[in-house]
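Hey, sorry for the delay on this. The queue was backed up all week. Below are the sequences that define the complex (chains, strands and the ligand SMILES where applicable).
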Amino acid sequence: MTTERSAELERYAERLLERARRHGATDAEVSVESRLSALTRFADSEIHQSVTEDTVRVNLRYVQGRRYGMAATGRLDDAALDTLVEGAAANAAGTAETDDWPGLPEPGPIPDVTGAYAAATGEATPELRAGIVREVIAAADAAGVGAYGSYATGTVTTAVLNSRGVRAVQTRSDAWLVTVHMSPDGGTGYAETCAVDVADVDGAALGREAAGKARAADNAVVLNPGECPVVLEEYAVADLLAKLGRCGFNARAVQEGQSFAAPGVRVAGDLVTVWDDGTDPAGLPSAFDHEGVGKERVSLIDRGRCVGLVHDTGTAARAGIRSTGHALPAPNPVGPLPTNMFMAPGRLSREELVGRLDRGLLVTRFYYTNPVDPKRAVVTGVTRDGVFLVEHGEIVAPVRDLRFSQSYLDVLRRVSAIGRDRRTVRGWFGGVSVLGDITVPAVLVDGFRFSG
Amino acid sequence: MTAQGAPTGALREITDRALDTAMSMGADYADVRVVRRVEESVTVRTGRVESVASDESEGVGIRVFAYGAWGFAATRRYDADAIDRAADEAVRLARAAAPSLRRRVTLAERPRAYGTYATPVREDPFALPLEAKVADLLDADAALAVPGVVSTMSTYAAQREWKTFAATDGSLTEQVFTHVGAGVEAHAVRGNEHQRRSYPEARGGRWRQAGYEFVRELDLKGNAARCGEEAVALLSAPSCPEGPATVVIDPSQLYLQIHESCGHAAELDRVFGAEASYAGTSFLTTDLLDSGFRYGSDLVTLVADATVPGGPGSFGWDDEGVAAQRTTLVENGILTGYLTSRDTASRVGRPSGGTVRAESWNRLPLVRMTNVNLMPVPGMSLQDIVADTDDGLYLTTNRSWSIDDRRWNFQFGTEIAYEIKGGRLGRILKNPVYSGITPEFWRSCDAVADERSYVMYGNPNCAKGLPPQCVQVGHGCSGARFRGVRMAAGR
Ligand SMILES: [Zn+2]
């Protein structure tokens, strides 16, 4: 299967824009996303699902004075053009005039991004994916555990054009491998990686990591809930950032009084520095957002203090500033989100972090976490796939999973050491379908409260 | 729209091509779905029509069983070349998977599927002028804005799907689904505190397979002011106490409890580990089936019923061509069945329960909930149960949820609790949160309300699978009482 070349998408967007203009739109915005994706899933050490799909999303925002309407289609043909323009125009007519309509973004700088696409990923075959999966399974076999996971590869071409002169086109690729290994003796282990290039995905290494964890987690003991110091591995830290990004550093949540974030407020310990950067090739780079606005690097937490928020055109206009390039696909009830998050590394190895625990827990990851009280970033969830009791700096026993319900801000405030190695994982932003990533180190937290 | 009859075969050219190519490439079995979907949505925020959007999508999904493995490929193109390429790709995917197979996959038999189905619709939401729907929503939103409410949100959405299914055994079905959903929510803020009240619930409201008449029946406007008032009142309300309590759970929360702790736990593909790396597994392992495993108290009977008229998860045939049916999952407290597909059902020696669906044309069909319902118990109304409760809490409207990957250990928060003292509802309490262990919780159920308060809730956002797929599922329930429930700190 082949994807439309970006030039074709741009031409289609151009025609749609022209059609909207002729129909009487005062302004219009077209975003087209063409995606080829494939996924090979495995369970109980065999491949049970293999899928591919070829999809396109065309979004039109039709502006009529201070009203706008949206229409979208999954087709890319001539008939769709008129349906789309007429639908969006009717939707605009049904909308009330907006007092604070910010207008569509004007053309602005779009950063040069290199390394967002790898041909090897674009050309990945079913046999290539199955081969990597077999390496993961072989590592599981060697440890006598079962492998459960998936390997996805995809290419997405995006074009965003508007009547103010915005022209933004890019092609990105991504490869994402995740595995949970489950031991017959009850242990489970997790490993995940994502990259632009399939060549950077090492199935055997990930398989060994998950297998080692699963075996180490066998015959876990029950620990009474309570508060104790923890080392959170990268997978758990990524969840902290994803939740804080959505509840906190989203300018819309702030403007509606539903966020903890405010300039200068202390939200984390001194060691914690967090930013969003769509251009960093360590993640899955992206040059612009869904409004065609260039991605700015936004500092979110600087040495523990809240210093910035991410904006789209709407929130930026309300704040009297420029969009930072973090708009999601319209219609967007969530607001702008940081989708390429990074936490600054520290100086300690994983062993040194664990070595600092006199008595505490090493936690691999969190699961099914949901905000209970978004304004205080109170989140409930459970640990999963490897929790270990550490005494005098040594892992002494695997522990059964524990539930927690506490503020993620309190967790960040009590970070007392940070690991030097970082991992990049796929970012999931609460059901919002955008390609994002989070690059984080492991952290030592002086106190983490488990409820049962 | 309700006339049922023989399929028209209008898309025969596409479906035949897909099936013929798949078979000629080496498939032993193939099925194909041609799906067209349209959607519309209106969002009003704080008195302003924030967005009106429409969406459409169509394409072909081809699933093959070849070399002992499954393959699935989807294309948005209808031309013969594209269909051939997709069918070829599906077979190639199956062939690439085959070397890693360790277990023979067998498919439970089913009769040939043939016929049509359509949602009964009295007032077509797509035919109604947009202005009318917007006006209704603005009215409701305005009624939310009582003094002290800082922001409001009111939503309406409708979806329609035309689905043609054909398979190499000669099956052919044509189905048309119409779903509508609507809801309102009020937000109040003081300092660091944020409270929400919604009706029928937040996150898009309640859904039904119906026409716009369902939105009218909801009476959003008539219920809005109470939402606004309660959101404001919650700011000054005392916190819900911690510790064990007797709780009476309103259907607006109980439906999600059923969804998370019964519905997902009963998915047989989860039991077999198919979702282990993402959605998770289940504590309801197959050794518990037919062994008298006590899931809940005698009062607890749960069914998966795809035949309920208007149920969000109802249909004529599932996406494997298995006819809609009603399966008992838990009967008088004892585990008796699962949600199944043809390939999972055969592993427990049963016919498929017909509970397989895909989000749309581009996704692989998976085991999904249909309408998983807690059957009402004749005898006591929900009011009678409150009157029969000396000291307890009445919990309403889901606010937060979390459950572990085995569906064993859960925690839910609701928007509001009402104190029950001497059989009467009293003052309101904020931030109620309860947690528990699934079978312990359901075994502590000592009263289920009768059919008078029975209501069908829908969850339009049930995500499962990779890539994640959302389908419409339904949950009917009437409210129930549970003893000794652990109330946790709400923050
Ligand atoms: Zn669900």
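Chain B touches chain A through 82 residues (CB under 8 Å).

I'll add it to the shared folder too.

S.
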